[in-house]
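Bug #77: duplicate submission created two jobs. Keeping one. Sequence:
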Amino acid sequence: SALVTIETFESLSLTLGVGGLMLYMVFIMYKLAKESGAGRYGTAMIFISLGLGLVGFAAKSVIQLVIQV
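Kept job's structure:
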């Protein structure tokens, strides 16, 4: 008997991998705002516009859990 099943490992790996990529994207947005000298308003626009994609992706997962698709 294995300690961790393949399904559990795949689910955990996917969650950690996608989460890591999302954190990396936030770092990229921060770096973009800093290097471009965007200022306070420009930085907010970068995080709002590019961050909406991350929020949408996360919301999709939550909605799937709620309606149990």
